[in-house]
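Please produce the structure of this protein holding RRO.
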Amino acid sequence: MSASLHTSFLHSSYDNPFMNASGVHCMTTKELEELSESKAGGFITKSATTLQRDGNPEPRYFSVPLGSINSMGLPNAGFEYYMSYVLDYQEKNPNLNPPFFSVAGMSVEENLKLLRRIQDSEFYGVTELNLSCPNVPGKPQVAYDFELTKEILTKVFEFFKKPLGVKLPPYFDFAHFNIMTDILNQFPLCYVNCINSIGNGLYIDSENESVVIRPKDGFGGIGGDYVKPTALANVRAFYTRLNPNIKIIGTGGIRSGQDAFEHLLCGATMLQVGTELYKEGPSIFDRLECELKDIMNKKGYATIDEFRGKLKGL
Ligand code: RRO
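Below is the modeled complex.
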């Protein structure tokens, strides 16, 4: 028997649930093309702002054995660059799913402007609104401000009719899972993506008695093994609370087939890989696919639907 990783997501069909996490290997058209040619089931662009941004001073990403710390500061080539890419991709590949398009405006008005531009365009793919960038000095993460999140979503859905998901930061308290669920359930969202990096961690080099990244005195978003339990908790918490029309993308700590299996068991439909994709490059998707299939074959699962969300209690 050979397990199938086939995944249905928002009425589209994907060969497998794996994607890059926005921000990793998706800043330039060259990197995006490499993802398109990889074994990833889908892929997403770097979060775009209206204008190109250089981001924070380097060093701004540091890899450690158990994960990563970053304070990139939203470097990106600007909204129109990614819009041209996705439209061109659609034209050249009418039989493939278009890339997901991630946007991260620096204000309510900018988010509305970017989404209006997508609404008025020929883009027919999925849009992800990043409400959780932890690294722009002086700008708190939007989705930790519940009122602001509700205000943005209210204004967005006055005009936005295309498929939309939101990228959330991790939450750490049942009260916050509940408040956020009450807000998200009021809107025709297609999915939530849990989680962005755990914001404002601090990794230090004790030999040099120093921080390891330059921006924000060394504070940055944490990814990799460090964050997997938090990511699984957020996937599970939202899967068990949200209206079932709102799917979950699981992101955080996926570096093996087993990590992927765990995210699926908690209820994720698609899976995004950040830190480990940065370390290994796009060939990681071949390995993840083989490892996940192996686990499913050993357990006797022919499809992901047979176990998705079916985490047992004790
Ligand atoms: O660019 C970044 O610093 C960044 C972003 Br926008 C994000 O959403 N998550 C992250 O860890 N880094």
